[in-house]
Amino acid sequence: MLEELKEEVCAANLLLQQAGLVVLTWGNASGIDREQGLVVIKPSGVSYEGMTTEQMVVVDLEGNVVEGELRPSSDTASHLVFYQELAGIGGVVHTHSTYATAWAQACRSIPCYGTTHADHFRGGVPVTQPLAPQTLEGDYERETGWAIVRALTGKDHTQTPGVLVAHHGPFTWGASPREAASNAVILEQIARMAAVTEGLAPTVGPISDELRDKHFLRKHGPEAYYGQQ
């Protein structure tokens, strides 16, 4: 079942390891088959070393296991909220990459300090509000997903392909599992550059909206001209 999607999701998970964004068993990637309403996701607590396509778990949009011998990621409920609420996405990634997680632990959004950032995020990277204590006793992972959805209020999720969860870490998404993983790589680099920038110039401010939009729109949208058409 969904063999091609399983291969894509396994490859996305391994890309996170290759890029140095995950250690041990930290992090997960998933992908969705919209026609069947099924999601493929990394199994919980399984090491990236020797990870195989056969280990991927298939769940429905209610979180019920449809296929697989292992338990799905503990973050499955968060992923399912994104697939239900963010139209058109085909993949979701969660990591604990160093710099993006540091900004999340500091409960700080990442300002758009330069054009490299603007090439991929049309503005700052949002951070969620901390979860209320009572939510920790309920469906914590699902509440985490809803916190991200709320952080995207008034934003286009295709122009903001990632959010930092306060005290926790980054989630990213994209049209496919690979694109979601690529956005995780991009977000970590953005976070690192922003931290270095503030170290060099503590009073630095974001770039102008005009420069931000120039860089974002030359890569995205109907009038994009970057790369080979």
The average pLDDT is 96
Helix content: 25-40%
What class do helices, strands and sheet pairing give? alpha+beta
Low-confidence stretches: none
Shape: globular
Taking all Cα atoms into account, the compactness measure Rg is 17 Å
H/E element string? Answer: HEEEEHEHHHEEHH
Count of individual helical segments: 7
Calculate the terminal CA-CA distance, rounded to whole Å.
34 Å
For the largest beta sheet, what order do the strands appear in spatially?
4-3-2-1-5-7-6
In percent, how much strand structure appears in the residues? Answer: 5-15%
Largest sheet: 7 strands, antiparallel
Count of DSSP strands:
7
Brief digest:
By secondary structure, this protein is α+β, with helices and mostly antiparallel strands. Helices cover 36% and strands 14% of the residues. It starts with a helix and ends in a 12-residue tail after the last helix.
What does this protein look like?
The protein is an alpha+beta fold. It is built from 7 helices and 7 strands, in the order H-E-E-E-E-H-E-H-H-H-E-E-H-H. The protein has a 7-stranded antiparallel sheet, sandwiched between helices. The model has no long low-confidence stretch (mean pLDDT 96).
